[in-house]
Description:
Helices cover 42% and strands 15% of the residues of chain A. Chain A has 779 residues and is of the alpha/beta class. Among the domains of chain A are: 295-307 and 316-366 and 383-522, P-loop containing nucleotide triphosphate hydrolases (Rossmann fold); 540-653 and 757-777, no CATH class. Chain A starts with 5 loop residues before the first helix and ends with a helix. Residues 1-22 of chain A have low confidence and may be disordered. Chain B is mostly helical and 204 residues long. Chain B has one domain (16-195). Helix content of chain B is 69%, strand content 0%. Chain B is built from seven helices and no strands. Chains A and B meet through α15, α18, α19, α21 and α22 of A and α1, α3, α6 and α7 of B.
Amino acid sequence: xxxxxxxxxxxxxxxxxxxxxxxxxxxxxxxxxxxxxxxxxxxxxxxxxxxxxxxxxxxxxxxxxxxxxxxxxxxxxxxxxxxxxxxxxxxxxxxxxxxxxxxxxxxxxxxxxxxxxxxxxxxxxxxxxxxxxxxxxxxxxxxxxxxxxxxxxxxxxxxxxxxxxxxxxxxxxxxxxxxxxxxxxxxxxxxxxxxxxxxxxxxxxxxxxxxxxxxxxxxxxxxxxxxxxxxxxxxxxxxxxxxxxxxxxxxxxxxxxxxxxxxxxxxxxxxxxxxxxxxxxxxxxxxxxxxxxxxxxxxxxxxxxxxxxxxxxxxxxxxxxxxxxxxxxxxxxxxxxxxxxxxxxxxxxxxxxxxxxxxxxxxxxxxxxxxxxxxxxxxxxxxxxxxxxxxxxxxxxxxxxxxxxxxxxxxxxxxxxxxxxxxxxxxxxxxxxxxxxxxxxxxxxxxxxxxxxxxxxxxxxxxxxxxxxxxxxxxxxxxxxxxxxxxxxxxxxxxxxxxxxxxxxxxxxxxxxxxxxxxxxxxxxxxxxxxxxxxxxxxxxxxxxxxxxxxxxxxxxxxxxxxxxxxxxxxxxxxxxxxxxxxxxxxxxxxxxxxxxxxxxxxxxxxxxxxxxxxxxxxxxxxxxxxxxxxxxxxxxxxxxxxxxxxxxxxxxxxxxxxxxxxxxxxxxxxxxxxxxxxxxxxxxxxxxxxxxxxxxxxxxxxxxxxxxxxxxxxxxxxxxxxxxxxxxxxxxxxxxxxxxxxxxxxxxxxxxxxxxxxxxxxxxxxxxxxxxxxxxxx
Amino acid sequence: xxxxxxxxxxxxxxxxxxxxxxxxxxxxxxxxxxxxxxxxxxxxxxxxxxxxxxxxxxxxxxxxxxxxxxxxxxxxxxxxxxxxxxxxxxxxxxxxxxxxxxxxxxxxxxxxxxxxxxxxxxxxxxxxxxxxxxxxxxxxxxxxxxxxxxxxxxxxxxxxxxxxxxxxxxxxxxxxxxxxxxxxxxxxxxxxxxxxxxxxxxxx
Lengths: 779, 204
């Protein structure tokens, strides 16, 4: 098989002014003798696979977990070697050609948002156009058309971070469609969505494919909804071989039973039953302490405000939960439902003591409180409890099961909390082995949990959560995207916890889960604080481009060679402060901006310590002369004060635009860097999630410098693993949109140089001028 | 390590995942660098009360990003790209050294890079790690002589250079090798030479 040659892809592009009369049509696909063995796997995932798909044909690809469906999809996109390495043989051709024009194959991945590259949805859709060098003024019309085609009627400058799952999938689809693909590949595009949203996304896909006559290949393990939309159903078996390939209803007539056995959701098949999980009781478990039906925990009037921070802009506060009441009863399953953005996960975390609510209070049943509980004062809320106390009572299964891993082996992971609580007797071991056996993980007991498949990790996360018998079990969307087998395992485990007397709280969109719940609590989206009608005035520095700000702040670099005394330093510092304060002025109409000086001072605070350190060592060495110490301190201050003023105004994406277009830094590294910078907030979230996991599993280092240091290293490792996982997903999405060959790309964002930029650089030069003048005039 | 696997294709032809992995490592390390900047001052000031160049013993973590980037990607420029981006990110969040951190990131990355360039980007064992680590630390020390330690005598400056170079070469390399191994064993480096080495070892 020939991989797409990156250097040539840009030359194969259709000219941007393609006459609209030539409607795009689907491509015929031919796969012959395709084999793929990733390094380190004994057996190939695909072995000599042959498949023909006619132009315009619509194919649904199904098979058990690990059957190579996603692998085949990547092979069709020519992206197998993008994020993995291994032995590849055979050929995939599009209309008989092994080469592909950039963007001729569109790919939408399972995780909404996994492929977002830009800070606005318009810019994100334009990404593929940039890669093939479409002129900037031709972009807005094509972007608007693509957004309209998928029914995303938001302004193009909206942030992708605020999109719901369904909107994010439409955005990904628009990003593919703008490249005029001839083959559309969808990798479980609706697995993470609730039923209504999924139906909406399917309707958009059906509409687009019909209108454009595209060839379509969809991978899903929930077949309902897709069957009427496709011409063919292709079923792979566990060894990556085609076992059925015909009209959907013919395949189902013959293979429905075996598909159900393999875990595939087949329409008309009876709902799966939760697995019967019988467990040895844990002697010291907190589950069962509260009588069935009594309240384990009650949250009253809970409110949670969230601050999101982005580099180069002010932080925004959103209301995640407002005035919510929620109680969980022992021995009952409570389902928390509501649309995406309603704050289900946040409310669950607040009730379980995983985060501190901004308002309201959480009361845990008295027998579950840590310590003797005899004191008359109001007990501490659970978000203040030490790790071990929390772990004894509360368990949490996060939506991303991969972040829940804390043990070195699967069995270790299940036993972690019991050991942390000192409950590691033979009962705990027996119970862990029972759980692993029932959930089909026994043969993996000694495996590193990070190497498990997604479904296996999900089962492990639930098993590890309930192994020590906690009184309150929190599970965040535990069944989303799972096949029938994992669904049955997860629900069976949660029901076993309920039988033991635990209060089980589940956020879910899954009707199958809601049906089995004792209570349903439906949330609605909390009202958001109204946007200010009058826009803020912008400080002068905010009107300067990022490159000019960077250059101005770096003008300080000659200063150490120029400044010889504290008097000279003081003079230059005065010039810097004057220029900086002028830059903070915000003339013009509008509301007065807040917190300008506070931001600068906050950035200078750590610098004070650094300055003191330098001054100290200069004093020590300079014969304990205060003038020498002051000179050293002022020299360092002069180096860092300008940065404190400008840093808050540098937007990374615009800096990328300037660095690529004005300084002509290589385009692809610049794009990669700005795309990674867009994820800064998600690193923050991941860090919090990893730390929360450790806390609720009873292994958070609450004190001790060495233990905390070791924990920081461990969590940093987890953060890096997560970050590289994101990088791999993003690489797929970017290469599917022609980034591999984008050596001469265009830019959707302009990089103008205005008067304000020249003035800012002038200000920087004035600092050097002041230093030269000080040198000449002051001793 | 029995055999060393180098990056696929021509070494200068960066794949998208090479760029993104460097970029994501850079951003993640940038956050860590910023955090280390907060933790660093107290112990560094404490040890420098007696002998100022000893603060070098707390400065070596700032070179780990470039070393990890090079150990993972194994292409020319990997150390400079990762280290520079980490420096930019920590500066944009806000370190005590402001945007001048960029210069540190650049010279540190160049020093590490040089160590691996000397071996033609074909060797990823201790020799280039020690040389690259030392050079990265030494380059940074020279920049700091100029910008921060102007008042120091030559003896202190030389001591600082060797302390920083030596601690990066030893501690920095150890931490970078450890992190790379951790990532490879976690299955996060499937598309990269260290991940392939780990998998081929496991496959035996």
